[in-house]
Every structure is written in structure tokens, then in C-alpha cells.
Amino acid sequence: MRVRVQPRASRNEIVGWREDVLSVRVTAPPVNGRANAAVGALLAAALGLRPSAVTVVRGEKGRDKLVSVAGLSPDQLRARLETTEGGR
Known about the structure:
Blueprint: E1 2-6, E2 13-18, E3 21-25, H1 34-47, E4 54-58, E5 64-69, H2 74-82
Parallel strand pairs: 1-3
Antiparallel strand pairs: 1-5, 2-3, 4-5
């Protein structure tokens, strides 16, 4: 799944889908992989999965990332995230 990240935000939240890209905000700074870890934790919590099930595959140093989620089909992934938009 493609993810666009805003680091150093005021709170961790899933903003929503913009076309086929999921927008998220995390409070962590983009230093030493902390923002990537925060993205993984946020998505795992929203999807009801272990943090180890969410992996940044590409884009470790940029805002645009490709994230792999183990155990869910693309349709299941999108359905679960659409119910949690806004960080709920």
C-alpha cells in the first residue's frame, strides 16, 4: 500500500485516502527511523495487527512510502482503514 507521511504532526492519526494513497500523520520526527516505526505502530493498531505485520518496504527516508501488511488482502486492508479514518 502506498502511504504519504507527515512527520512531527501534533498527533498520530490516519487522515484518509487520496486516490490510492493513504495519508497519515505521526508525532515522531524523521530521525533514525522513528517516523517509520510510528507509521508501522499506527497502522498496526488501526488494523488490529501486531506491529511486526507492518513493514516499510520502500521510502525509508522520504514522505512517500510503500508499506507491506501481512495477513490482509488489499480489499480487506482498505475496508479496515476506511472505518478508522481520522485516527479512530
